[in-house]
Every structure is written in structure tokens, then in C-alpha cells.
Amino acid sequence: MSMPGGGDAVPAGDGWFDTPRRYGRVSRGFHWLMAALFAWQFAGALLYVATGDNAVTRLVGGSHFTLGFTLFALVLLRGAWGLANLTRRPPHPGRLGRAAVAGHLLIYALMVIVPGTALLRQYGSGKPFTPYGILLMPGRDDKVAWMVAPGDLLHHWLAFTLLAVLVGHV
Predict the structure, then answer these.
(1) Which pLDDT score is estimated for 4?
(2) Residue 142 pLDDT > 60, yes or no?
């Protein structure tokens, strides 16, 4: 349908919310914002692995904790939004569709587990955590080894597993 002046009208229901034809603006906004933030996170991590601790990696990696927390909050919001739109979303029929759904579930699981292990490690370390200058975890003198261990053991490897799955997603 054409609008006066030559523009196309936005079909009803094809705006903010998902429809069976396409993902809405909010879903696409979450997707691309998180893609950009993950690109920054992984660029910093890969740079650190390739070049070690230096001024450039400290500059790029200086936002790692705060950005990781931001991504964790965004994935929870995105998950809630996705569940609220579940019945309206485009269908994924057939074998490839089931594979796509399974891949997305793996991505979501990793997007919760990777920062979850980091937050558990942070809390167990006894060090304060203040993303954006907001005190979320106060510092304390004791260290809780069972909280630190999963992050030390899994965060790095699961993060690079997430990267591999995201590359496959792309």
C-alpha cells in the first residue's frame, strides 16, 4: 500500500512487535545491539590472546566487566521479550527450522552461562563489582573458592564456544 508522497505504509502489526512475517523493531534492535557489543567483547578477548597484556588490550578490555554485565542484562530482557512474542514470531518449519531453534537455544544458554560464571566468580572473589559506578557487589575480606572455581574453569572456554556458535549463526 502506498502512502501519499510515495512512501510505503507499514502493515498493521509490523512495527514494534514480532509477526509471523518478520521480527519487530524491538527484537531486531536487541539482536543488532547485542551483536555489536559481542563483537567488541570478542575483539578485546582475541586481541588479548594474540598480543598479551599491553596498552591496546587494556584500552579495549577495560570495558569487559561492565560490558559483560550489560550483555547479561540485555540477554535477560531479550529472552523475556522473545517469550512474550513467542506465538507471534516467524515459524521455523522442517529439519532446518528445528536446527535453527536448537542453535538459538544453545546461543541463549551460553549467553546466560558465560556471564553467569563470571558474576559468580566475581562475587566469590570478594572484590567489589561496580558497573557504571553502581555498587552491585560490595568487597569483603574472604574468598569463596567454590564460587571462583567455575568461572576460572569455564568462563574462558565457554566464551570461545559461544564465539564459535555465533560465527556458525552468522
Answers:
(1) 44
(2) yes
Please state the pTM of the whole predicted model.
0.84
Contact in structure between 57 and 51 (CB atoms under 8 Å): yes
Cell numbers found for residue 105: 537455544
CA 75 – CA 81 distance, rounded (Å): 10
Residue ranges in the chain assigned as alpha helix (H): 25-51, 55-61, 64-84, 94-125, 145-150, 156-169
* Residue 113 near residue 66, CB atoms below 8 Å: no
What pLDDT, on a 0 to 100 scale, did the predictor assign at position 5? 45
Beta carbons of 107 and 166 less than 8 angstroms apart: yes
Q: Is the CA virtual torsion 141, 143, 147, 150 positive or negative? A: positive
pLDDT digits (tens, 9 = 90+) for 4-15: 444 444 445 559
Residue 132 has what DSSP assignment? G
The pLDDT score that the predictor gives to residue 135 is: 97
**Residues in CB range of 67: below 8 A, 6 or more apart:** 37, 40, 41
Which residues are within 8 A (CB) of 34 and not within 5 positions of it... i.e. 6 or more apart? Answer: 71, 74, 75, 78
